Amino acid sequence: MDDEPPGLFGRFLAEQGVELDVVMLHRGEAIPSLAPYDFLLVMGGAMDVWETDAHPWLTPEIAAIREWTLNRNRPYMGVCLGLQLLAVALGGEVGLARAAEVGFGKVELNALGHAHPLTRGLPSAFRIMQWHHAEVTKLPEGAEVLASSAVSPVQIMSVGREIMATQFHGELTPALIDRWAQIPQYLEWLDQAMGPGAYGRVRAQARLQLPKCERVSRTMFGNLVASRRLVRAAA
């Protein structure tokens, strides 16, 4: 989606001097050869993984994720839809969640998350932005759950030490949340999920929560790329 940019993760890549290539599949842009790249970042979107008739570009995207993770085994990070696409690409399943999860909610590490190198240094529990109505319902082979929420069991999923994805939105910045005020569809979706005036409440919470969220995201991202020298990344 045009309004789902890399956000903080794009900033973290830039800080390392990484050249970021952004591919907008919904605009008809083709997935390039993955051979030159060191890192793949897959962001969120309002569509569901099974809506391939309405969004036919989902099919080649899933195939590219499968190639990247299974065949090339290179670092991957997915956010929200990027988590769900990873799960499907590796043989898992995604379906409607028992309840939508929207707003700043609590995520808690499990025992594996406390010990895993990808989540090393994270607090045991933290509040972070959620915005989804679908979730991973069956883990792919080899995947591990590192954190959950009261609504969704799979909030952080890893495959080995270089492939991870989050159901929550760790990429958000104050500027991105300010931008939502100019997008009527986003305001409508928030009101549907949280009641009238939802945007104002979320924005007020963001002022308090986003500095803490950035620390969480920076820690996770740093853990993921610590063992790699990145040069080029695709998002």
TrEMBL record:
Pfam families given in the database record: GATase
InterPro entries: ChyE-like, Class_I_gatase-like, GATASE
GO CC terms, sorted: cytosol
SUPFAM superfamilies listed in its UniProt record: Class I glutamine amidotransferase-like
Gene Ontology molecular function terms on file: transferase activity
Domain of life: Bacteria
Keywords: Glutamine amidotransferase, Transferase
Residue stretches making up the Glutamine amidotransferase domain: 13-174
Gene3D superfamilies noted in UniProt: 3.40.50.880
PANTHER family reported for this sequence: GLUTAMINE AMIDOTRANSFERASE YLR126C-RELATED
Name of the molecule in the record: Type 1 glutamine amidotransferase
Source species: Aestuariivirga litoralis
